[in-house]
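Sample 1 of the test manifest.
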Amino acid sequence: MKHLLAAADLSPAEIASILDLAEEMHAVQSRQVKKLPTLRGRTVVNLFFEDSTRTRGSFELAEKWMSADAVNMSGKGSSVSKGESLRDTVLTLDAMGVDAFVIRHSGSGAVHQAAGWVRPNVSVVNAGDGAHEHPTQALLDAFAMRRHFRRHSTESWEDKTIAIVGDLTHSRVVRSNVSLLQTLGAQVILVAPPTLMPAGVSTWGVEIAPDFDAVLPRADVVMMLRVQRERMAGGFFPSAREYTVGYGLTRDRLERLKPGAAICHPGPMNRGVEISSDAADSVNSLVLDQVSAGVAVRMSVLYHLLGGEGQA
Ligand code: NCD
């Protein structure tokens, strides 16, 4: 693996290798001394042009716990605020001799472009580009779901149905998850009001359901996605209240889920809009497991890109 730009670029063997190594990395989180020498001497730049708590924090922890040197840059506080372009920013940092970039940008495709600008031996990880892709999120979701399945039933993906519910039009998480879950062999159902169902979704090869209530008893996992107001120009639904009535994981819907069904949300959550506190804090909620998986999975991804044989 040279870059990680899109979930669809990963083969079943690569996914298994990343998730299995992440299991080992996960143990580091509970140690008193959280330090591995794995990426000593390697330098990673975290270039975040959009706000982030989980993704940015967990990449930085992953780098530090593997002894890489981490440099953090954001739009504000860098020369981007003076008008420097993404290309010049990437070329400038690349010229300093770094080994990898982790990039989040509001432009769909911006991270793919960056991968074409860096020197040949430099890796680029997509930490979320516009409404396009967020591959490490899909990997950490798969990690948290796989652990849940191992605890509750069988590990196989083929007999699992994952419902992804919410603002799908503006979500990069849904695009990466659909690709990854299809590669793993799971059944995916997309649930959203017609105004928030992505254009061209009928070509994605997944089931599309406008009625959330009908899906509740069928899903092994319900993945609730945030209503992304910052990406919306104009009204996509009449009011937050109406959205919740039709598509929120309310206490009432929680009771109609299949027994043992897991609840996922990538965060940040709009409690009371797409997810009730009863659901977010329920025993089958994986929300904090997803966060914890994020560090382990990002450690594993960085190892696969930078720490493998012949790379050191
Ligand atoms: C997601 C993102 O930024 O795409 N969050 C995350 O990375 N944990 C989803 C969101 O912002 O709603």
